[in-house]
């Protein structure tokens, strides 16, 4: 807008935003507030606005301590972080190399390969869920993190994102290197990877959120409770009857922290990723 | 698609080898974990394959599909899935667009609001399902308690077959709409400011500006958003799995949940694969239909 907003308009805008934000955030505020209360306090406050205000007891983090003692929540978080870290490291290499080749290298059958990748992109995960499981079963990878890692390594969507990014880098970049006789591997790692850092950050956070939050596939692959992923551990907490609300609220909060931290540090790239998957074509 | 042809020179042998080597790992993995399973789904659906009794596998022809036509729970799950899609798509899009328009301004602190609206999308569906089960709990849940204090309710929410699916719709739209907000926002910011200025000079009201500038400006993005919500809404499983077990009276049983239960829990891989095949055909048909519709609209406007 060219004309300046008046003070009244500004206040009105903030007011509307705040009301909408409060309405929108009430489940999360309730979750965090309740994670500091015992069940008597949670249900004592539940029919008033105090439900959204934490009560600090003598030991404010007692629910957190008790949920960590009852469940192997921390170890399952550690396991999840480790296998996701391995997956993402490999996935970045595999998918970005494929995306780079499809964008910048001339080789036979390239068009066919590109078409195939676009085609498999439409296959819904649920279509292949059962046979994927029987392949993992035959490879003896059930009850192992390999069963979670292997199917997550190559991803047509990420290949496409990398390809788009590498297509946008000007040709002059590699010409000098080619004249120097540098091989593709060197050109890729020394010239292109540093230029494409943002898309690596984007794919990292997209895949982290996806895998951290995944539930159905880990439930199928992992049956040993010691190897449970973080979401499985959380769901078992919900299934212990009677449900202790304070414990569960603390558990929900703990599990949400890593994604939230990663998201807040990398949010620029996450948002860019969402916008770029949406705005193109 | 933007695959530009650069240079007429033929690829050198060295370059070809490098190119193939670069794509090989991804292609091999996609082949094993996506393409082969896709063919296996096709194959399994004509057998009675059971993962625990692989030796007893027999070709059964169309038996699984005939069984599907008589399976009333499967019919119900298709109906429920469509019901979910029909309700969640407009709600989630509307919420996404509304929020995007709210935060499309350059005032101080707007990032904090944007983060607040976006936060639910990074929560897992497990977290969201557990949290909303507490909110919807008919006896001592948050919603009934708050509504009760102003004399409304109580409602049975997830325990009533008439309202259970709608309850899942609400939390799903709440969890997901932050994504659509971001995409809509990038679309809104691409609309040139001077269009609004010119319209305002001509005396157009805010609503007219919305109708004649904002909506057409967001057309392409809206198509993309609609399709992505439809496709992900079709895959609904975690919420009913965590919150209702598909009940009450199968009112929240969905196609994917049935595939999971039949093929994995009851080990009827063959029958489950037949369901998965029907599911795939539906998703593909909708994708094609939507592409057709949008290209038809494009042509009309030309």
Descriptive overview:
The complex is a heterodimer of chains A (281) and B (302). Chain A is mostly helical and 281 residues long. Chain A has two domains: 7-59, no CATH class; 71-239, MetI-like fold (Orthogonal Bundle), CATH 1.10.3720.10. Helices cover 73% and strands 0% of the residues of chain A. In chain A, helix 4 crosses helix 8, helix 4 packs across helix 11 and helix 13 (230-239) crosses helix 14 (245-279). With 302 residues, chain B is mostly helical. Chain B has a domain at 81-249: MetI-like (MetI-like fold, Orthogonal Bundle), CATH 1.10.3720.10. Chain B has helices spanning 13-44, 63-70, 72-103, 110-118, 125-136, 142-149, 164-190, 193-201, 206-217, 219-234, 238-243, 255-265, 269-301. In chain B, helix 12 (255-265) runs antiparallel to helix 13. Chain B is globular and about 75 Å long. Chain B starts with 12 loop residues before the first helix and ends with a helix. Classes of the chains: A mainly alpha (281), B mainly alpha (302). At the A-B interface, helix 1, helix 4, helix 5, helix 6 and helix 8 of A face helix 1, helix 3, helix 4, helix 5 and helix 6 of B.
What layout of secondary structure does this protein have?
The complex is a heterodimer of chains A (281) and B (302).
Chain A: H1 7-34, H2 39-45, H3 62-70, H4 73-104, H5 110-120, H6 125-138, H7 146-149, H8 156-167, H9 172-179, H10 184-195, H11 197-213, H12 216-221, H13 230-239, H14 245-279
Chain B: H1 13-44, H2 63-70, H3 72-103, H4 110-118, H5 125-136, H6 142-149, H7 164-190, H8 193-201, H9 206-217, H10 219-234, H11 238-243, H12 255-265, H13 269-301
């Amino acid at each position: 807008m060219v004309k300046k907003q008046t003070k009244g308009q500004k206040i009105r805008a903030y007011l509307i935003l705040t009301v909408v934000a409060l309405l929108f955030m009430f489940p999360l505020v309730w979750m965090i507030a309740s994670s500091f209360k015992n069940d008597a306090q949670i249900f004592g406050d539940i029919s008033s606005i105090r439900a959204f205000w934490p009560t600090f007891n003598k030991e404010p983090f007692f629910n957190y301590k008790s949920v960590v003692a009852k469940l192997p929540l921390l170890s399952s978080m550690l396991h999840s972080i480790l296998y996701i870290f391995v997956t993402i490291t490999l996935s970045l290499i595999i998918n970005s190399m494929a995306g780079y080749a499809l964008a910048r290298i001339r080789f036979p059958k390239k068009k066919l390969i590109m078409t195939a990748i676009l085609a498999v992109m439409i296959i819904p995960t649920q279509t292949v869920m059962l046979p994927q499981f029987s392949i993992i079963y035959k490879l003896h990878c059930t009850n192992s993190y390999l069963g979670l890692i292997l199917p997550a390594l190559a991803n047509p969507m990420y290949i496409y994102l990398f390809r788009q990014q590498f297509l946008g880098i000007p040709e002059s970049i590699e010409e000098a290197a080619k004249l120097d006789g540098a091989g593709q591997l060197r050109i890729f790692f020394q010239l292109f990877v540093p230029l494409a850092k943002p898309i690596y950050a984007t794919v990292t956070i997209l895949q982290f959120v996806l895998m951290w939050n995944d539930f159905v596939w880990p439930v199928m692959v992992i049956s040993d409770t010691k190897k449970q992923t973080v979401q499985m551990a959380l769901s078992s907490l919900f299934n212990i009857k009677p449900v202790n609300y304070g414990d569960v609220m603390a558990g929900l909060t703990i599990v949400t922290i890593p994604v939230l931290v990663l998201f807040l540090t990398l949010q620029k790239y996450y948002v860019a990723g969402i916008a770029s998957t949406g705005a193109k074509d | 698609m933007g695959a530009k042809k650069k240079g007429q020179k033929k690829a050198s042998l060295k370059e070809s080898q490098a190119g193939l080597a670069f794509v090989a790992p991804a292609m091999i993995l996609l082949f094993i974990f996506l393409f082969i399973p896709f063919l296996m789904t096709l194959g399994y659906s004509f057998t009675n394959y059971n993962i625990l009794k692989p030796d007893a596998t027999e070709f059964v022809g169309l038996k699984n599909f005939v069984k599907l036509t008589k399976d009333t729970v499967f019919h119900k799950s298709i109906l429920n899935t469509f019901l979910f899609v029909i309700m969640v798509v407009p709600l989630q899009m509307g919420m996404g667009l509304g929020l995007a328009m709210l935060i499309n301004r350059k005032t101080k602190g707007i990032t904090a609001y944007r983060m607040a609206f976006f936060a639910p999308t990074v929560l897992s569906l497990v977290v969201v399902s557990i949290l909303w089960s507490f909110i919807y709990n008919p006896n001592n849940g948050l919603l009934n308690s708050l509504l009760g204090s102003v004399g409304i309710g109580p409602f049975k929410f997830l325990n009533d077959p008439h309202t259970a699916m709608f309850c899942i719709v609400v939390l799903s739209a709440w969890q997901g709409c932050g994504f659509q907000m971001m995409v809509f926002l990038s679309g809104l910011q691409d609309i040139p400011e001077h269009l609004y200025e010119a319209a305002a000079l001509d005396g157009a009201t805010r609503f007219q500006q919305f109708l004649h500038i904002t909506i057409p400006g967001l057309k392409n993005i809206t198509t993309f958003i609609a399709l992505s919500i439809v496709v992900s809404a079709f895959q609904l499983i975690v919420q009913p799995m965590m919150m209702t077990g598909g009940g009450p009276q199968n009112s929240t049983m969905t196609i994917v949940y049935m595939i999971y239960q039949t093929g994995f829990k009851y080990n009827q891989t063959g029958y489950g694969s037949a369901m998965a095949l029907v599911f795939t055909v539906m998703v593909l048909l909708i994708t094609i239909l939507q592409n057709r519709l949008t290209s038809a609209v494009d042509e009309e406007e030309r």
